[in-house]
Design a protein that fits this description.
This protein is 33% helix and 25% strand. The protein binds alpha-D-glucose-1-phosphate-6-vanadate and cobalt (II) ion (CO). It catalyses: alpha-D-glucose 1-phosphate = alpha-D-glucose 6-phosphate.
Length: 538
């Protein structure tokens, strides 16, 4: 079996965004497109000769074909070993864990995460480094630069490998190890949590539902929640991964996971419910009659993590993405530990985790994680919540109220305007930046463009979103999404703090209505985009 080189000319726009390269599936299916990006990735990291790679994806449409292409290319480029999830499946956190546990040099994750799947929907690919985390900006920039000069890619001319059973086989000179995608991940979870305590909680009648949204967490949740923790069969909903996620939108938020939200809001609903996204790195947490905002979830987890075996030693620090509410900072302050504010995207947490500066990290977009891997981790967050609920013997609602009575409440919501004309979106952001240089309207204290200096390696990232600080302490953030595949998505993040003595039980959208109006007055967003309301509110 000899390696061959095929000529290819550069494709425009192969620029990794917030989390890898995401495009319409048909774009990825163009002859040579995937190959050009994979070869550019290999070239940008100094080749893969003699390296060990972890490869897997969320099982969406084109996963099965793309993984064969990647395997052939890894072999033709001289990789020593490829560790592949059975049937090509690996959740993003499980891939991160495998890279770390097996000392691999890196990994390729096939996923467009929370974006819908299907031939007319989205596909994606990202490269993770040896620490198990998404490639930092310097690496993604090198990959992008290489995509612009690429002239050919190397592959083997062989038949597809059968990935349906765990085994070790060979492709050219490369050893291909097909592993059960769940085993190592489940074992890691058992080292972090008190499975006995969670089992007792569930055995005592505490009712749980987990919505896998027809995506990759189905097998993980079934094994961990139903088999190992003894939750009744049927606890996991939509647990069989499908290539188009049951034609749904595998994004665990109150819009796309509405049936689950309706369930917990009902009288006879479960005590606890959660959902994860396409690739298993996001989580939505619900309790009977209550939706926990991801920003609050991070704060509650930080305040209670010491009750759980894996974090009993305490936390080194807490990191949150800039648009995430400042609720976690209040906890960090009380605990006397460091709090970090990073740009959006998990790649910015990697250095803090590697350096032992942060133990927990979180994003308002339903991402929470810790130093156990280098990705956000949906099921891990669910288990951490369950372990805390078991330890505190309180309901989710009681825990939230107790938290707000201690720290105050950061009313928080994100409003998304999707598929906006790119020029209009760019002009809106540019105008806001321009405004910051002029006298500010009454009630606004400061407007700035967020820049981040990594405290570990000193690298600087500019233009990470516009922050608007109001005189009353409220804050709004505006930024453009880096994961969309159609037009621009404008994200407006809104937060207003109320002290423990204030009104803690208001409806979030009501509490934030004056802020929404102030943002409209400042940006004329609705008028300029012609939208009456956001497409998604979290
Ligand atoms: C979004 C979220 C961000 C998250 C990213 C990847 O990015 O806002 O917090 O890290 O998705 O998540 P953006 O650029 O569209 O705002 V996932 O679960 O799609 O890997
Ligand atoms: Co995801």
């Amino acid at each position: 079996m000899t390696a061959v080189t095929h000529a290819v000319t550069p494709f425009e726009g192969q620029k990794p965004g917030t989390s890898g390269l995401r495009k319409k599936t048909r774009v990825f299916m163009q002859p040579g497109y995937l190959e050009a990006f994979v070869q550019s990735t290999f070239d940008a990291i100094g080749g893969v000769a003699d390296k060990v790679l972890v490869i897997g994806g969320d099982g969406r449409y084109f996963n099965a074909e793309a993984i064969q292409t990647i395997l052939r290319m890894a072999a033709a480029n001289g990789a020593k070993r490829a560790i592949v999830g059975q049937n090509g499946l690996l959740s993003t956190p499980a891939a991160s864990n495998l890279i770390r546990a097996r000392g691999a040099d890196g990994g390729l994750i096939l996923s467009a995460s929370h974006n819908p799947g299907g031939i007319d929907e989205d596909f994606g690919l990202k490269y993770n480094t040896a620490n198990g985390g998404p490639a930092p900006e310097a690496v993604t920039e090198a990959i992008f630069a290489r995509t612009q000069t690429i002239t050919g890619y190397r592959t083997l001319e062989t038949a597809d490998l059968d990935l349906s059973e765990p085994c070790t086989t060979e492709l050219g000179e490369t050893v291909v190890e097909i592993v059960d995608p769940v085993t190592d991940y489940a074992a890691l979870m058992e080292t972090l949590f008190d499975f006995g305590a969670i089992r007792d909680l569930l055995a005592g009648g505490f009712a749980v539902k987990f919505d896998a949204m027809h995506a990759v967490t189905g097998p993980y949740a079934t094994e961990i929640l139903e088999r190992r923790l003894g939750a009744p069969e049927g606890t996991v909903l939509n647990g069989t991964p499908s290539v188009d996620f049951g034609k749904g939108h595998p994004d665990p938020n109150p819009i796309w996971a509405k049936p689950l939200v309706d369930m917990v809001m009902a009288e006879d609903g479960p005590d606890f419910a959660a959902a994860s996204d396409g690739d298993g790195d996001r989580n939505m947490i619900l309790g009977k009659g209550v939706y926990v905002t991801p920003s609050d979830s991070l704060a509650v987890l930080a305040a209670n993590a010491h009750l759980v075996p894996g974090y009993a030693r305490g936390l080194a620090g807490v990191a949150r993405s800039m648009p995430t509410s400042r609720a976690a900072d209040r906890v960090a302050q009380k605990l006397g530990i460091e709090a970090f504010e990073t740009p959006t995207g998990w790649k910015f947490f990697g250095n803090l985790l590697d350096a032992g500066r942060a133990t927990l990290c979180g994003e308002e977009s339903a991402g929470t994680g810790s130093d156990h891997v280098r990705e956000k981790d949906g099921l891990w967050a669910v288990l951490l919540w369950l372990n805390i609920l078991a330890a505190r013997k309180m309901s989710v609602k009681e825990i939230m109220l107790d938290h707000w009575q201690t720290y105050g409440r950061d009313y928080y919501s994100r409003h998304d305007y999707e598929a906006v004309d790119t020029e209009i979106a760019n002009a809106l952001m540019a105008d806001l930046k321009d405004r910051s240089a002029h006298p500010l309207p009454e009630g606004i204290e400061d407007i700035d463009s967020f820049s981040y200096t990594d405290p570990v390696d000193g690298s600087v990232s500019h233009n990470q979103g516009m922050r608007v600080f109001f005189a009353d302490g409220a804050r709004a953030v505006l930024r453009l999404s880096g994961t969309g595949t159609q037009g621009a998505t404008i994200r407006v993040y809104l937060e207003r703090y109320v002290a423990p003595s204030g009104a803690l039980k208001e409806d979030t959208q009501v509490a934030l209505a004056p802020l929404v109006q102030a943002v409209e007055d400042l940006t004329r967003l609705k008028a300029r985009t012609g939208r009456a309301a956001p497409d998604v509110m979290t």
